[in-house]
Structure formats: C-alpha cells, structure tokens
Amino acid sequence: MNTDPGTLFDYIIRPDNIVNLAPSPPTLKFLDAPEKFSHNIQFEFQILGIGPIGNIVYEIIHFEEPSKFIEKQIDGPLESFVQEHHLEVLDNGRTLLYEKIEFEPPGGIIGFMMTEDRIRESLTEGYEYREYMLSRVFKEE
Q1: Model pTM?
Q2: Which domains, and CATH codes, for the chain?
C-alpha cells in the first residue's frame, strides 16, 4: 500500500473502516465493537447474506502496533478461525499487508452449507475486494 505501516494499521483496526472495505450491499454488520481494536478486546458481528448463522464473537489475542494483530473466533459457526494481520515496510517506503487465515469448517448440518471450498471462495472474493478498496483509500497507482 502507498502509506506507512502506522497509518494502515490504524485504518484496519477500526470496525467502521472494515465495514467500508466489504463488498456492497453490506455483508458485515458489527453489533458490539469498540472504536478501535486493542489487545484482549472482544467484538461481535454478523455476516449478512449467507443464511442464519447467528452472531460471531472474535477476540484480539495479540496486538503489536503497528506491525501485527491476531483475531480468533471464540463463538461462531466455524470449528475454529484465526486470522493474523501483518504489516511490513518495503524498501520503497510502501507497506505490505498480508494476512494468514487458518480455519476449520463447521460440522453437522451447517457444514453442508458452509463447506471448506465455499468458505475459501468467500474469503478470496472478500479479500480481493478489500485489497481493491484499500488501494483506492491509499491512492495506489
């Protein structure tokens, strides 16, 4: 991204900004979230448009400003979900944002709808759109 790590980090730890990075119509609705994420903060949200999966609660389990934070699902439809956000300064002064996601699909009836392939496809589409929106926010050329 065409910005420094601190600016990008501050942008992606704000739930209001995360909502703006999601595809339209809105696919993400925060129900209980702080203005900014920080260590040990829990937040609750819904993913819209994929059926009645209920509310999802995550916790920020690691927070290292401005280079890394990790969120973990503590209540939700998946067996497990952990997402790491890493920011790194490149030689040209730009910032690389890369994310590592590990998950286990749900079991039972919900597992028939939320298969690993569907989850991966949804994540890929969502993060491609997010990258596009971040490039617009930070005026990529």
Answers
A1: 0.90
A2: 5-137 (3.30.530.20)
